[in-house]
Amino acid sequence: MAQEPKVRLRGLYKIFGAKDKEVLHHVKGGMGKEELLAQHAHVLGLQDINVDMQAGEITVVMGLSGSGKSTLIRHLNRLIDPTAGEILVDGEDVMKLSESGLRDLRQEKMSMVFQKFALLPHRTVLSNAAMPLEVRGVDKAEREAEATKWLARVGLNGYEDRYPVQLSGGMQQRVGIARALTANTDIMLMDEAFSALDPLIRTDMQNLLLELQEELHKTIVFITHDLDEALKLADHLVILKDGAIVQQGEPQGILMEPNDPYIEDFVSDINRARVLRVKSVMEPLTGTKFAGDVDIRDNLETLIARSGGDTTQHYRVMDGDTPVGELHMKDLVKALVPRLSSTQSE
What we know:
- By secondary structure, the protein is α/β, with parallel strands linked by helices.
- It contains 16 helices and 13 strands.
- It has a six-stranded mixed beta sheet with strand order 6-7-8-3-9-10, with helices on both faces.
- A hairpin with a 2-residue loop joins strand 4 (about 85-90) and strand 5 (about 90-95).
- Helix 5 (about 125-135) packs across helix 6, helix 5 (about 125-135) packs parallel to helix 7 (about 170-180) and helix 6 packs across helix 7.
- The longest helix has 18 residues, at about 200-215.
C-alpha cells in the first residue's frame, strides 16, 4: 500500500483581484495570464497545481521570477488563501481548520526559513533560536536548552549571546535553520532560503541542509530560482512557469528527459557531469569483468576523473555492498550531450 503524501495539493488556483472567484471560469476555460490581466485586471498566480509531497523528502519548487513559486509555498500554511482547490496536510484539509487549528498548524506542524533571515535584531542568537518554543509557552530553561542544542548542530556553538548584527549572512541563516529545527516540526518551508548568500557560503548551507536531512528526515519544501541548487537538493522537483506546472518528477529524470522546450532550454547549460549521477546512466548488470566498482550516488565527473577519460572502460555499480548495475563509459559520454530543444534546432 502506497504511503499517503505528507502534503497534497489538488486543483489549486490563485487569482489576485477583488473578483477572483468570478473570473476563475475564464482561467479554467483556457485564458492565460496575459489575457486575464488585459481583459479582467486580475493576476493569475497559480493554475491547477497538483503536487504530492512525500514525508521525509525535499520537494523543490523552482521557476523564474513571477512563476508562482513563492505564492505556492505561502498556501501551505495559509499565509495566502487559494481561489480554489485543496491543501491537505496529513490528510486534513487546512481550508477547513478553525482559527485555533490553523494556529496549531503554523506553530507545531510547520516551520519556515526565510530569504532575509527574519531575525529580531534586539534579541540574542539564543533568544531568536528559542522563539518557536517561547510562543508555545515552554519554560525558559527547556526552550534555551533545545535551542542551544540546535545552534551547536549548525555550527554556532559559542555564539549564543551574540546579536544578529554581529554575524555574517551565512551565520544568520544558520540561526534561522536552528530556529526552525528548535520548533521540531515535521515540515520545514524554505523560501529562497540561500539566495541572499555568497556562492561559497550558499554551497556550505546546501551541504549542511543535506547533512541534516540525512539525519532528521524532515519533509522540506524548498523554493529556488537556481537550477543547480534545485538539482542538488531535490528528491522531487516541480518546475513552474506563469503559475502552472511545466514538469515535475525525480530531478535526474527531468534532466535526462525534459518534456517541454521551456525545460530543454532551462537544462541546456547545466554542467551535466557534475549534476548527473551514476544511477541515471547505468544499465542492468550483465558483465563479469570490470575496471572497478563505483557508487550509485557518484556523479559522472567523479567517474570521468577515475577513468582518465578512457571510453573503453566499464564499471560495476554498487549500492553499499550490493551490485546493482553496470556503466559503460561510452554511455556516460552520450549522457553528457544535452538534447537540442526545438528552438535550438531551428
